[in-house]
Amino acid sequence: MMANHTNISSLFERTCRQYDKLRKREAFLEQFHKEDIFKDNFDELDNSREIVQQLIDEYHAATRPDYISWGTQDK
């Protein structure tokens, strides 16, 4: 059975928008400062956000007919 689940990208997009709002206001970040990995900066969170954006981009690319060659072109 074949299925198309590319619409899940809308969930990831909403999550990124919410993250961006919280990050801009620096909401709830004081809890993360207690962890060793976040003592100096929040690069780990920001890198994770970038990875989710890449996932969104790939889901969008998967809806186009040229998806088979997506990611092979020079950017």
Automatic annotation (TrEMBL):
<protein>
    <submittedName>
        <fullName>Tubulin gamma-1 chain</fullName>
    </submittedName>
</protein>
<comment type="similarity">
    <text>Belongs to the tubulin family.</text>
</comment>
<dbReference type="GO" id="GO:0005874">
    <property type="term" value="C:microtubule"/>
</dbReference>
<keyword id="KW-0493">Microtubule</keyword>
<dbReference type="InterPro" id="IPR008280">
    <property type="entry name" value="Tub_FtsZ_C"/>
</dbReference>
<keyword id="KW-0963">Cytoplasm</keyword>
<dbReference type="GO" id="GO:0005525">
    <property type="term" value="F:GTP binding"/>
</dbReference>
<dbReference type="InterPro" id="IPR023123">
    <property type="entry name" value="Tubulin_C"/>
</dbReference>
<keyword id="KW-0547">Nucleotide-binding</keyword>
<dbReference type="GO" id="GO:0005815">
    <property type="term" value="C:microtubule organizing center"/>
</dbReference>
<keyword id="KW-0342">GTP-binding</keyword>
<keyword id="KW-0206">Cytoskeleton</keyword>
